[in-house]
Automatic annotation (TrEMBL):
InterPro entries: Aliph_Amidase/BUP (IPR050345), C-N_Hydrolase (IPR003010), C-N_Hydrolase_sf (IPR036526). It comes from the Eukaryota. Keywords: Hydrolase. It comes from Hibiscus sabdariffa. This is CN hydrolase domain-containing protein. Residues 114-384 form the CN hydrolase domain. Pfam families: CN_hydrolase.
Amino acid sequence: MITQNTLISEESESDLELELEMEMEKNEENGSTEEKLTGSICGYNSLQHLLSENLNPHLYQEVSRLLLGLNCGKALETIVIPESAKALSSKHDFDLQAFTFSADKELLREPRVVRVGLIQNSIALPTTAPFSDQKKAIFEKLRPIIDAAGASGVNILCLQEAWIMPFAFCTREKRWCELAEPVNGESTQFLQEFACKYNMVIVSSILERDINHGETLWNTAVIIGNNGNIIGKHRKNHIPRVGDFNESTYYMEGNTGHPVFETAYGKIAVNICYGRHHPLNWLAFGLNGAEIVFNPSATVGELSEPLWPIEARNAAIANSYFVGSINRVGTEIFPNPFTSGDGKPQHSDFGHFYGSSHFSAPDASCTPSLSRYKDGLVISDMDLNLCRQMKDKWGFRMTARYELYAEMFARYLKPDFEPQVITDPLLHKKSS
Ligand SMILES: NC(=O)NCCC(=O)O
């Protein structure tokens, strides 16, 4: 029975306001109160935080079991983070969390444990600052977070979508195109040093300018190998045309298919942001053998927050791989107001990017999420053997009936396609 442990939604409005005020006061974390007010859930930095503070330990355990699932029959365990990484997180005020997904022991294969990190961040300077200063400030902001990942022994690190810039695609202003870089440009060079220093694979999502093909623009993930080499790139397949996400003004649908990159630490792929709403996009990376698929994103609460914890987790389950979901944080205000043809008054920001980066595993378990308003690094160990173990257990690949769907698509793509509908012969008969 929920009584004094009740969720705060049942409290009176004035109680709630008082509690929120007290929570904000006792909250020692840095960052502006205003950002926390817009970014928090009633003063809590994440759903897990809200629940853990308001439920008794037994109720919290039961709620977590249902919300986060179990991994090998147990709640996910946290892992010990080196003091040097913790010190960086306190000094530079970023959220730092670390977990481990295990798999069953096998008789013929050794465990294949890799340590993976995801970074979420807000921009570092106002969008009105000179572009080069904005970019440099983001580099400087990320430096200690990447160092914390390196100090923690992260093998594969992924940054958020278009991490070197504000998510300016809402504006439709062409001047933001200046922030596009070639695949081997400034941001890649910046990350190559870390890749070498920490023997780390890094996935970097940028606005790409393809110099060799008419200086065209793409939304691209660059895969940097642990020797600092560029392994390859993937271009975002599905471009949003929803709300303020006016990204088709800037770049076209990707032309790189669904590549899987075989790295020193496993087979990885990147499903960039809006591609997460397309189950076939997830499927294709799985068919090419991905063991971890990253979803670097930029999305706002009003549009997608109820979808966020579901889609990635479902993809991990359906495709028997791990998913790393990243969303940026904060509210980015642009100098010129814009509208997006949806009848809403003109405005100067997208709304709040709600962070909440996390991992999902093929056995339906997932980590708690990072903060809704703070920069953060979430780390997880994952035994990649779990991918095949879940394929063997559920048999989704073997029961998939791909031939049925191949035939369906072949028919659907023909101009004379007619939907397969069998109408009740009595439906249109006049009653006599
Ligand atoms: N960046 C991007 O594709 N955002 C689209 C919004 C969403 O998919 O939630």
